Structures are given as C-alpha cells and as structure tokens.
Amino acid sequence: MDKFVKLTGIAAPMPLINIDTDMIIPKQFLKTIKRTGLGVNLFDEMRYDGEGKEIPDFVLNKPQYRDAEILVAGDNFGCGSSREHAPWALLDFGIRCVIAPSFADIFFNNCFKNGILPIALPQETVDMLMKDAEKGANARMTVDLEAQTISTSDGQVVSFDIDPFRKHCLLNGLDDIGLTLEKAAAIDSFEAQAKSQRPWV
After folding, report:
1. pLDDT at residue 183 tops 70
2. Going from the N-terminus, what domains does the chain have, and what CATH number goes with each?
C-alpha cells in the first residue's frame, strides 16, 4: 500500500454522527473483491437521487470538495457491519485521512490495513477542525504523521496520538502482506533448515 507520511489537502466537513458502513458503501456494491472502482459509489445514497443524479447539497458533490483527501466527521464513524469495502471506497475516492471524535473498532483497524489514517480527537478539537473545513477548497489542512500534528489553514496546530506500530506501518506502507515479506529472509532460512532436518516432509 502507499506510504502515508505527510498529507496536505482539502478537508470535507461531514458533521453527522453514527455514519455507518452501509452509508459509506451500501450493501449492493459489496459483490466485488477488487479494491478499486468503489469510489464512485462512496456515500451512494446520500450523493445520488433515485435516478442516479447527483444531489447538489451533498458535501462531496460541491465543487470545492470534489477533490477532498481529508474527511472531518461526527462521533462513532464507521459503525455497523465490518465490511472492508468501506475503507476501500474512501481510498478509491481519494480520502486518505478521517478525523472524528471516535470510530467503530473494526472500521478503525481496517483503515490502517488499507493506508488510511483515522484520527480520534476530543469533540471540541473536531469542532474547530470542522469550522476550518467549512471554509472550502482554499482552506487546506496538513496532516503530518511523523510529527503527529494537524495544521489548519490559519496556522493552528493540534497533536494526535497513534499507536507506534501502526505509525510505523503507515509511514512505510506496510499492510499485513508487507509485514510478512519483511521477514522473507528468516522464513526462507527456516524452510531450508526444516527441509534439511525433515526431508521426508
């Protein structure tokens, strides 16, 4: 997966609580096992009307937020079923970071495995970032993973906590497969030794 080191981009405000995974990517789009192509259906039922036309008032349909890479959302983001398609859809749209007061555990873990940085912050801090995001495309935020800071368009800086192991994985672009491949030499050595000791296996 792509490394996440420092991201400067447009932040889209979505001040809704309990945004569940069915809202993020509705169940009818779960037939694929591909990680690409789901971005067009991200928040499908909020983005499009019954005829498939864009709903102009939805935040990601507004011209200033079409290229958003950061999402500032309400409490309990990613609740509901444990579909990994939810982070796939966010990533395919272009969202690399989600900021909220809290996240559902499974969604939170799935984000890290797919190169998305979920940041949980106190409500008052999220409210401040939400106001900054509401300024539109000219108000860009910077998320610096190495420094563990978020900088607003007007220069305010807030810090966030992250598990050191998860930070290491994002900075180095390591998913579960990548972590395993880091040990490839040790695995090869073990297999060669096992083969010589037990040739009949």
Report:
1. no
2. 6-174 (3.20.19.10)
